[in-house]
Amino acid sequence: APKEGDFDYDALTENREIKDESEYDKVKQTYLDAISEMETSLQKINPNMKAFEQFDEVESRLMNMSEDFKGKREGQEGKVKEFEEILKKRTDLFRKIFDHVEKNIDNVYKALTKSSRHPMGGNAYLNLEDPDKPFLSGIKYNAMPPGKRFRDMDQLSGGEKTVAALALLFAIHSCHPAPFFVLDEVDAALDSANVNKVSNYVRSRTQDDSLQCIVISLKDTFYHKADALVGVYKDQEQETSGTLTLSLSEYDTKSHDKKSKDKQLSHSAVFGSQNSEKGKKKTPKKTPMTATSSKSKRSSRKRARA
C-alpha cells in the first residue's frame, strides 16, 4: 500500500500509457470539454434569489385559499342540510297526496262501475315504481273493469280508459277540491250503460259535495240530469251562434213517469221553442234540434251544468 504523500500510479486509467504529446493533447482536450460542460450545467442551476419572495407569496395565497375553501365548505354543508329538509318536505307532501288518492281511487272506481249485475264494481290500483324517491319515478295505474281479468291500461277500450281517467280525476279532487269541473264530451267513447253510470255519479257528487260540473255533451242521457241546460245553435241568417237556457230544477220533484216525459219536453223546450234575447222571446227559424243533427256535423253543443 502506498505511503502518505506517495502517488498511486495504479489509480490511473488507461491514459497513463500515453506515448506522445499528440495523444496527451487529445486526452487533455477531452477533460477540458467535460469540465466546460459541467460548469455550464452548474450555471443553469444557480439558486434563484427571489425564491424566498415567491415562496412567501405562494404561502399567502395558499392560506387565503384554505380560508375560502373552509367558508365554502361550511356554506355547502348548510346547503346540503337545507336541500335534505326540502327533499323530506317534498317527499312527505307527495306521499300525503299519493296515499290519499291511492286510498280513495278504488272506491271512486267502484262507484263509477257498479251495476245490478256487478254490485261491487271494478277495482283500481296505484303503485309507485320507486317508493324511496317517488317523485323521480313513475306511478303505475291499473284499472280492472267488473267481470274482466286484469290487463294493462293500454289494453283497455276507449270507454274503459275514460271511466278510469274520471276515477283518477275525482280521487285527486277529493284531496284538493276545486270549485268546479269542466268535462268536455267525456261521454263520447261511452256506451249508454256507462253514460248512465257516469252521469249518476257526477250527479251524486254535486249533491253531496260543494262541487259544480260544467259538462259539454251531445247525449241527452247525460245532460238531462243537470240542474240547467245551455244550448248553442247556429243562426243561419245572421251567421252567428245563439244560446238557449233552461233550468231543470223544477222537474226534479216530478214522478218517474212524468220525469221521463219532461226529459223529452225539456229537450224540446231548450232546443226547439224559444230564445231569450234582451228580455224578449223569439223563435228562431232554424231550431237547434236541426242544427244538432248529423247533417250539420254537430254544430250545436249542449253544455250541462250540474
Task: Give an account of the 3D structure.
The structure is a single chain. By secondary structure, the chain is of the alpha+beta class. Helix 2 packs across helix 3. It is 48% helix and 16% strand. It folds into two domains: 105 residues, Rossmann fold; 129 residues, no CATH class.
Summarize, please.
With 306 residues, the protein is α+β, with helices and mostly antiparallel strands. The chain is built from 7 helices and 9 strands, in the order ααββαβαβαββαββαβ.
The level of helicity is: 40-55%
Instruction: List the secondary-structure elements in sequence, H or E.
Output: HHEEHEHEHEEHEEHE
Query: What's the arrangement of strands in the largest beta sheet?
Result: 3-4-9-5-6
Radius of gyration: 46 Å
Total count of helical runs of at least 4 residues: 7
Category by helix and strand content: alpha+beta
Q: How many angstroms does the end-to-end distance come to?
A: 127 Å
- What is the percentage of strand-forming residues? 15-25%
What count of domains describes the coordinates?
Answer: 2
Q: Judging from the principal axes of the Cα atoms, what is the shape? A: rod-shaped
Query: What average pLDDT do the residues reach?
Result: 77
Major sheet summary line: 5 strands, mixed
Number of strands: 9
Low-confidence parts lasting 5 or more residues at pLDDT below 50?
253-306
